[in-house]
Amino acid sequence: MSTTGTSRRVAVLGTGSWGTAFSMILADAGNDVTMWGRRAEVTDEIRRQHTNGQYLPGLTLSRRITATQDVAEALDGAQVVVLAVPSQSLRANLERWRPHLPGDALHVSLMKGIELGTGRRMSEVICEVGDVDPERVSVVTGPNLAREIVRRDPAASVVASASKDTAEAVAHACATPYFRPYTETDVVGCELGGATKNVVALAVGMAEGLGMGDNSKASIITRGLAETTRLGVRLGAKPLTFSGLAGVGDLIATCMSPLSRNHSFGVKLGQGMTVDEVVAETRQVAEGVKSAESILALAGSVGVDMPIVEQVAAVVHDGRDPSEVVTQLMSRARKEERR
Ligand SMILES: NC(=O)C1=CN([C@@H]2O[C@H](COP(=O)(O)OP(=O)(O)OC[C@H]3O[C@@H](n4cnc5c(N)ncnc54)[C@H](O)[C@@H]3O)[C@@H](O)[C@H]2O)C=CC1
Ligand SMILES: O=C(CO)COP(=O)(O)O
Q: Is there a smaller number of Cβ atoms within 10 Å at the N or the C end of the chain?
C-alpha cells in the first residue's frame, strides 16, 4: 500500500471495529499507530498476531500498528489522538485519560452519538472533559462501514473542524488511495448527521423487519433527513452539510446496508424481538438505541419536531410495538413537504 502522508505518531483509543479499521487507514497512510483497549485478549492479539478476530475477522494489520492496555503508553508522544469508544462511555474514559492527553496533539472523534443527560456532541465532550482547544479537535464522519473499509473498497469521508488547518492536517494523515477525506468547518452539522442517521437506520431496519419494501424505506430515509436538517439548522449547522457525505451519504450506507449494526438492530425489532433480546445477542455498539433518547431531548430543548426519532425512542425505551410506529407516522396531520 503506497503512503500519502508524512509519518506521525498516532494514538487510537478503542480497539473495536472502527478504531481498528481507522488504524489500518492511518498505517496505510504512513503513520505509526498505538491502539489502546480495555481487554488484554484484544490488545495482546493485535500486538502479537496483528489481527483483531472478534471485531474484524480475516484482517491482517500492518506492523506499524501496536496495542496496549496502558493508556499512558498509548498517548506518550502522540501527535494525533483518535477517540473510538462508544459515545456514552466517552466522558468517563476522558476523565481517566485527561492527565495523559498531550496538550499539543490534534484530537479526532470517530464517534457518532449524542450524550445522554447533556445533549452534548462528542467534540464538545472532548473539549470540556479533555480540556482541549476546539481548534485542535476534528470529527471524521461519512459512509464508512468498517467491514467495507477493511476490504479497502474506495470510500469518501469528511474531516470537520472549526479550524481549517486542523481539518487539513487530519485529512492529510488519513488520506489513502481507497480513503478520500474531504474537509469541512461545519462540525455541528457533521456530528448531528452522524448521530441521527443511526436512529433513522433503526427505523428503516424496523420497516424492513416488518416486511415493508423500498418505497417505505426511501420515505423514512428522506423524511429522516428532513428532521435531521431541521434540528441541525436550528443548532447552527449549514443546511448543505446534510446533502453531503455526513448527511445523505451516511444515511444511505447505514440505512441500506446489512453490515450496519443499527440497521440490523432495527430489523430484529421489526421481526418481533425485544430490545433486551437484541442487546443480548449484539456484541457491538448500536449507537442509535441510546441516541434516540438524547437526540429527542435535544430537539425538544430547542422546539424542533422529530417524529421519526420520537417513534424510535418510543420503541427502544418505552416498548412500543414497531408496527404501531407506522400507524403513528402515517396518521400525522398532512403538511407541505418543506415545512
Ligand atoms: N463500525 C463502524 O463501521 C463505524 C463506527 N463508527 C462509530 O465509531 C464509534 C465506535 O464504534 P465501533 O468501533 O464500531 O464499536 P465496537 O462496538 O466495534 O467497539 C467498541 C470498542 O469500545 C470498547 N468499549 C465498550 N465499552 C467501553 C467502555 N465503557 N469504555 C471503554 N471502551 C469500551 C469495546 O471493548 C470495543 O473495543 C461509535 O460511535 C460508532 O458509531 C463510525 C463509523 C463507522
Ligand atoms: O457509521 C457507520 C457507517 O458510516 C456504521 O454504522 P453502524 O454503527 O450502524 O454499523
A: C
- Shared-domain flag, residues 238 and 180: no
What are the pLDDT digits (tens) for 33-64? Answer: 999 999 999 999 999 999 999 999 999 999 99
- 339 CB neighbour count, 10 Å cutoff: 7
CA of 258 to the centre of ligand 1 (A): 18
Domain annotation covers residue 3: no
Residue 175 shares a structural domain with residue 237: no
Binding residues for NADPH: 17-18, 38-39, 55, 112, 146, 261, 285, 287
Extract the C-alpha cell encoding 189. 452539522
One domain, residues 53 and 115 = yes
Whether residue 197 lies in the annotated active site:
yes
User: Collapsing DSSP states into helix, strand and coil, what is residue 109?
Assistant: strand
Domain tally, the chain: 2
The b-or-e profile of 39-76 (16+ CB within 10 A means b, else e) is eeebbebbeeeebbebbbeebebbebbbbbeebeebbe
Residue 257 domain boundaries: 188-330
The string of pLDDT tens digits covering residues 242-283 is: 999 999 999 999 999 999 999 999 999 999 999 999 999 988
In a shared domain, residues 150 and 271: no
Residue 119 lies in a domain: yes
Is the beta carbon of 245 within 6 A of some atom in ligand 2?
no
The answer, yes or no, to whether any atom of ligand 2 lies below 6 A from the CB of 196, is no
